[in-house]
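Data availability (excerpt). The following record was deposited with the supplementary files.
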Amino acid sequence: MLPKRLLPAVVLAALCLAGCAGPATQQPVHADHPAQALAMLERVSWGVNAGSARQVQEEGWQRYLQAQLHPGPARLPPAIQAQIDAMSISQVPLDQLVLSMEQKRKASAAVMDDEAKKLAQKDYQQGLNRLAREAATRSLLLDVYSPNQLQQQLSWFWLNHFSVHQGKHNLRAMVGDYEATAIAPHALGKFRDLLGATVHHPAMLRYLDNEANAAKRINENYARELMELHTLGVNGGYSQMDVQELARILTGVGVNLGAETPKVKPALQGQYVRRGLFEFNPNRHDYGDKQFLGHPVKGRGLAELDEALDRLSRSRATAKFISGKLAQYFVGDNPPEALVARMAATFEHSDGMIADVLHTMFDSEEFKQSLGKKFKDPMHYVVSAVRLSYDDKPILNAGPMLSWLSRMGQPLYGRQTPDGYPLTDASWASPGQMTTRFDIARTIGSGSAGLFKTDGPQPQEKVAFPQLASALYYQSLQATLSPATRQALEQAASPQEWNTFFLSSPEMMHR
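Predicted structure:
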């Protein structure tokens, strides 16, 4: 038996090896087998907890999956709903929120005294930081507690696919609304609706500079990423001419951060559109005819954009690119071509219905064979650890989770480039990443993570460490562990150390 003082180092070394080599090979089992259902639940949700495991056991896998693919309104624990309802981003519409912040920005710029100007600018920046933190906190609380787990995973997936960086301009005030209104409601619906919602959101238009795109001053940034990253893919068969023509179609599509409406030429006033912060200004649009993806587009204003989005969303290249990326996220770094082809066929036949594409994937043998082998990125590790540790017990402070994600290089809305965070295992399996995860496991396992510590007066009763050696463990999870992991757990010197070893085990690193 190894001395107790050496066990953390041994477990950490095993963890690092698991990150590179993957978990021990498991024998395939039938879909209705309890172990198979648990493994599928781990993949479809943000992570198994006692409540979700009980739900699958009571309902059966197929009924649970159908409810996840076609979810109703999410019912959150009252304490979590209260936290979300108290946020400014939940109470104030986006246009009012941004206009208020713009007034602060302009007021700070007008201050003459240097010290007063610094204080005013600091207040403005702190206000933006607070709104971004609210957005990230709300996102994590939904990931941990929403019963619509697949919808939450897909919301993160699409937020990453249609990535924006909160550090640009005033996007910190917009990211919460972007996730809540452009992404989440369409996460399992028609891809065309999702695409259109992102195209019309001010966060995307500001991030990729389309507000600067005007006739005779063409900016191609958004047009290029719209095809390369969002729809057709880098090998999607489009040309530089298509980029230029799409940029022309996008002229005049932008953002109005003020209360005033621009003066539009009398002949074009009927074409002006203002919805919240979104604006189509016909003064800035190129009304010439275009040739896009091999077909003409008649110059007629904002309707050109709808025609272009229809063409992009229904392209065979888009069906293949989106299906491949979904398979990479849910199945593996190099998903089988046959699976991607079947998913792409479903995409085309269903007119881009995301839930149907996922159903094709979840029903496949390729998906079932991949279970337990997909390495968790930081989001999956953090959220799954908290879900398993606390089930439906409401945390009071998501700050530690936000900090962990930053330490591991995957903060929400933090990807500076528009390609989103990588989905491949190797991107997150470095020794440094493993060391951080062991530290996270230790702080959660000992109850010292600070998830129940608030800014106000602290309760007299100290929050206990999680009880991971629970009925869920002995009835379900224990059977999925390797002999080496079980041996390490048997040598833990305390319940807190047992929690640490379990949360840092190779099995907790994979889904």
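Summary of structural features: The CA atoms of residues 91 and 377 lie 32 Å apart.
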